[in-house]
Amino acid sequence: MVTITTVETLQDAAANKGQGTAFLGGGTLLMRGVNYGDQNVSRIVRLRQPESLAGVSSEGERVRLGACATMATILKSADVAFLHAVARAVGGPAIRNMATVGGNVFAPHPYGDFAVALLALDAKLRMSDGSELELERLLAARETETRLIESVSAMRPAGDDFRFLKVTRVKPRGASVLSIAAWLPRRAGRISGARVAFGAMAPTPVRTPAVEAALEGVSLDQNGIDRALQSVANDLNPPDDSLASGWYRKEVAPVHLKRLLLGQGTR
Amino acid sequence: MSSVEFRKDLFNDERDDNLQEIGKPTRRQDILGHVTGRSPYYDDHLFDGLLHMRCVRSPHHHARIRSIDTGMAERMPGVIRVVLARDVPNNLNTLLSLINFGKDEEKLIQDTKVAYIGEPVAAIIAETDRQARDACAAVKVDYEVLNHVLDPEEALSSDAPVVNEIYPNNTFDYHDLYDHQKLRFGDVEKGFAEADHIVEGEYQMSPIEQAPIETCGAIAAPETNDRYVCYTSTQALFFSLGTTAKLLNMASSRLHFIGGTVGGGFGGKVDSIVEPLSVLGAVLTGRPVKFMWDRTEEMQVGAPRGAERWRIKDGVARDGRILARAFTGFFDAGAYTRLSSYAIIKCSAHLPGPYTIPNVASNVFCVFTNRTPATAMRGFGITGVDFAIECHMDKVAETVGLNPIELRILNAYRDGDMKPHRRLAKNTALIECCQVAAQKSGWSIGADATRQSSLLGGGGARAEIPETVTDSAGRIGERRRAPVPTAPGEGAASKGHVRAGTQGIPIVAAAPQDEDMVIDPARTGYRGPSSTPTRIPDAAMTPDHSLQPAAAAAAPPPASRPGPVAPPSSSQYQQAKPPPPAAQMAPEPPAAQPPAVPQQPASQPYKPEKPFSRGVNRPGVSRFLSGSRRR
Amino acid sequence: MSKTPVQFSLNGSPAAVFVDDAQNLLDVLRRGVGDLSPKYGCGQGTCGSCTVLIDGEPHLSCLTLAETVEGRAVETTNGLAEGPQLHALQEAFMENFAAQCGYCTPGMLMAAKALLDRTPRPSREEVIEAISGNICRCTGYEPIIDAILAASGQPTRRTG
Ligand SMILES: Cc1cc2nc3c(=O)[nH]c(=O)nc-3n(C[C@H](O)[C@H](O)[C@H](O)COP(=O)(O)OP(=O)(O)OC[C@H]3O[C@@H](n4cnc5c(N)ncnc54)[C@H](O)[C@@H]3O)c2cc1C
Ligand code: FES
Ligand code: FES
User: Fold this and answer.
1) Does B294 touch chain A if contact means CB atoms closer than 8 Å?
2) Which chain C residues are Cβ-neighbours of B35 within 8 angstroms?
3) Nearest ligand, CA of residue A35?
4) Boundary-marking domain end, from C79, C101, C127
5) Which residue from B minimizes the CA distance to C44?
6) Structural domain boundaries enclosing C60
7) What ligand 3 atom has the least distance to the C-alpha of B264?
8) Could you tell me the residue ranges of all domains in chain A?
9) Model confidence over C57-83: pLDDT tens digits?
């Protein structure tokens, strides 16, 4: 059985967290579990007014997204146009009206496309206890995290420095065979401080340090990216699922990374 | 609609061109209900006090059940009833038992051994769906995990685990004789010997889930007249009714089934699992009970189109004529028969595809493995092998260096040709389809191929049944003792011959089981061919092999089409034609003469051993049909 | 088990029901309110047959916690027609053979309505995007896409 607790603030919600308790974002994953009798969730805590945590705003060179902002909210905000392609890649229109940024960070494999983009954009989380936390740190330990996410801040990339690509079996929309996000700041045509993240290639969205290192100082052309493409396999050990085998994912990852880096087939 | 193009120039003398509906846009008669959301699917019937049923399912491919502990589940909130195997009055069935095909082998709820992931071992009925799920999670089943087998050919090996104890050889028994269905036509070995090329190929396909958007389900409720109403998603209402009557050992007259509005079926809604369970629930609780699969169940335990593996071996002449074709086929039935046994019969009648090949042989196996039982899906029995055949045709074309469409036209069947299951082909149209397809796709074909017609060149020598080589390899149980090759003819200790022009065994139509099943032209307006037997003449039932000429059993060639004219390439068939019927056929023990296609053993026309023996014991009334038959 | 009262507007009329803990909106609409037009196809957001509009936007009712629609406006296929006058989408679905078994149809109609309410003359690509969360196993989608274009007063590809 599942009981519902409705609270006013995220802090109240966090105070309620405990064994078998889950915080309701858009519910696209949580309610699926409820419908299917998930025995790990016996209490759902929800905010009476989740809209209060659904704002999207600019903060200098960064943007801040409320954890309860939905993909549809993102798509309505001109401040975060660079994230529109990412938000549009999540589910169909109805899912996008429900799916939240906070929930996406906790979405299990093969989901979490939005978190992949956030990871590439150096996202920092503001948690319910007021602390700041790098998204990367949270992802590494998300199974045991008890705090809630209040908002996320991410870099606002310049020009076409940010790229995102998602590969699906079903068209036009489906779950990821893999997704890739890359933030490629350039100085005089050379990449400096690249961040590259993959989705559906590990239990959580992950960065690929070897690829990032291989991109340092190179120009975005076939020769420049060659070593990065070869490094993909070093960083990733993707799982098998009904969409694709881990072997297949590993084989095609460099192909898609190449398309992303050379600007072919981005969306 | 406008994208449909009619080729009325083809076969135009075979029909009047006064079609009222075909080719014209029309509205579905039920579409108003669909667009207003008011079409009454089974779940669109509301009941006060509706209870919900869910199943406890096996997490293992194969395991013995040591014990089932439902104590905790019974005490959970909202739980009304736990249903176990012992609650099912007649807990053994096979789907086709209603037409007397196969042995009872599958339990509605298991209590001894599970043979696939998701096989039900208990059902829980509770006030809400969630309560039923929670209680299911609280049932403790102690399993002894057994070795499992997931590949049909591995299941044939002598040391494979026994999947289904009723069929201990992991194969369905055909005609009480063989562990596979045989088809023999001519002599493939002779054809291979005459061929310039041997082309071999292996093809396989995975199971395919029908995935209707409405999941399988049913709601049953007690009615006021000691009957039970059942709203169901079934695609086969009376089949489901009959199956329910049998499993619940209940007179079919007490069952009131309502269906017909189905949210997609595609073959996946004939298996009649949800109906008996929901009616059983209503019987045990006295309340309305809904048993609705969720999507996970639909995908995991909903019977798919089964996996198939095919090996094809062709003997091909230099010019592309296929002289012989041998098939070895494996249907993965999953753990229980459902409809796979029947798919193979249908398949065997289809071989070798829409081509006239003078020598054809096939062995097709219905194999039990620890996978989800397989069942019907759009053209099942045909679709998989057609995929294999058409891939193989391309391979043949490549081997002999021929245009693949011309190769198909060269080998296409034509009106009046004899098919290996010993029926004459009629209304064939493969040649015309190939010609139009070539034209539409801008694929050029030669003048000779463009001139061919399905109406011309068939029949004559091509209408004859050749002398046929038979063998008795693969008797039931043989493979358990020692490996036996699976390809046709291989591993046979001895071979038999059936004289050219003969059937091997007489083909007789299934006799009506009851007077009222005899077609009454006055009532139906149908005047079937006068040669259709209505009662099997006693003579036909004697185990005498004085074989009748084929023409007597086969339908006469269509009279409306022009008589067959030899095709340009017909000389091949002259060459390949067997010698005139041998004066006498070596008399063999009947067992050494496998039936080519007819489904009943030679000496036994269709006759249920114990026809419809359970149910209302009123003479002349089937237990499994509502009410009494019209007399 | 506790019951929670929920009030919302259903197709323009006030509705009030008691919902069970964690009950989803689909179940409440169907068994609580008796609006049978949204359908259950998966209970996990993948099929779209339960699509309803909440405050004008498409949502999956099977994944919507019923209590969260308190005070909001819910629309279903049941409310599409005005009296005997069918909605243009309904007419177009009938004309274009956009339903076979009809089980996906109510969800398709709601997804399409959300699109046309916002974008009265959508492109074919926008139509495809709008129904990308709805599965149809019968029609192959083309008749549905045509019907939605036809309802927006635009020529369909095949007849146009
Ligand atoms: C049909 C379908 C298609 C989908 N397609 C995609 C896709 O293409 N790409 C993709 O990435 N995902 C996809 N998803 C998964 C999912 O919808 C998204 O990942 C979504 O962003 C999850 O957010 P939510 O608000 O719905 O999460 P919920 O279901 O509400 O919550 C999920 C988990 O996150 C936790 N959580 C939620 N918010 C917070 C918070 N603020 N702080 C801490 N914990 C929180 C919850 O407690 C819960 O454990 C799909 C899902 C479905 C059903
Ligand atoms: S039932 Fe809600 S999406 Fe399938
Ligand atoms: S019409 Fe049957 S699923 Fe769409």
Assistant:
1) yes
2) 77, 86, 89-90, 93-94, 99, 102, 105, 109
3) 2
4) C79
5) B295
6) 3-79
7) 2
8) 3-47, 50-155, 162-261
9) 999 999 999 999 999 999 999 999 999
**What is B545-609 written as a DSSP string?**
--PPBHHHHSPPPPSSSPPP---TTTHHHHHHSPPS--SSPPP--GGGS--SS-SS-TT--S--S
pLDDT: is B25 or A61 the higher one?
A61
A92 touches chain C (CB under 8 A): yes
Residue ending a domain, choose from C79, C105, C134 = C79
Three-class SS state of C94: helix
Q: What is the pLDDT of residue C25?
A: 98
Residue B47: count of CB within 10 angstroms of its CB: 16
Residues C68, C12, single domain; the answer is yes
Confidence of residue B512 (pLDDT cuts 50, 70, 90): low
Atom of ligand 3 nearest to the CA of B213: 3
**Contact call for residues B37 and B261 (beta carbons, < 8 A):** no
Q: For the segment B572-626, what is each residue's pLDDT rounded down to a tens digit? A: 333 333 433 333 333 344 444 444 444 444 444 444 454 443 434 444 444 443 3
Pick from C81, C103, C138: CB nearest B41: C103
CA neighbours within 13 Å on the CB side: how many for A99? 27
Say how many C-beta atoms besides its own lie within 10 A of residue B19's C-beta: 11
Distance B231 CA to ligand 2 centre (A): 22
Looking at the CA of C48, name the nearest ligand.
2
How far is the C-alpha of C78 from the C-alpha of B35, rounded, in Å? 9
Q: Is B244 helix (H, G, I), strand (E, B) or coil?
A: helix
Ligand 3 mean position to C138 CA, how many Å? 4
Query: Among A16, A19, A95, A241, which is best to mutate for testing ligand 1, by the most ligand atoms less than 8 A from CB?
Result: A95
**If we measure between CA atoms, which residue out of A76, A75, A73, A80 comes closest to residue A57?**
A80
Under 8 Å between Cβ of B268 and B243: no
Q: What is the pTM of this model?
A: 0.89
Largest Cα–Cα separation, chain C: 57
How many Å lie between the centroid of ligand 3 and the Cα of residue B4? 21
Domain A162-261 is of which CATH architecture? 2-Layer Sandwich (3.30)
**Residue ranges of A 164-193 with Cβ closer than 8 A to chain C:** 172-173
Neighboring chains of A (3 or more beta-carbon pairs < 8 A): B, C
Around Cβ B521, how many Cβ atoms within 10 Å?
Answer: 9
Q: Best mutation site among C97, C101, C148 for ligand 3, i.e. most ligand atoms within 8 A of its Cβ?
A: C101
Query: Where does B48-146+211-300 sit in CATH, by number?
Result: 3.90.1170.50
Residue B570 above 50 pLDDT? no
Residues of chain B positioned with their CB less than 8 A from the CB of C102: 30-31, 33-35, 39, 263
Same domain, C57 and C119: no
The span from the CA of B136 to the CA of B52, in Å, is 12
**Ligand 2 atom closest to Cα of residue C40:** 1
Distance from Cα C102 to the centre of ligand 3, integer Å? 5
The beta strand positions in B35-180, using DSSP E, are 51-57, 63-69, 79-83, 113-114, 120-126, 140-145
What is the radius of gyration, based on Cα positions, of chain C? 16
Residue B77 sits at the chain A interface (C-beta within 8 Å) = yes
**Rounded CA gap, B273 and C78, in Å?**
32
Strands A56-59 and A62-66: antiparallel
Residue range A50-155, CATH number: 3.30.465.10
Under an 8 A CB cutoff, do C21 and A4 touch?
yes
Roughly what angle, to the nearest 10 degrees, separates helices C88-95 and C142-151? 140
How far apart are alpha carbons A183 and A186 in whole angstroms? 10
The reply to whether B207 touches chain A by the CB within 8 Å rule is no
pLDDT at A173: 86
What is the pLDDT of chain C when averaged over all its residues?
95
Number of folded domains in chain C?
2
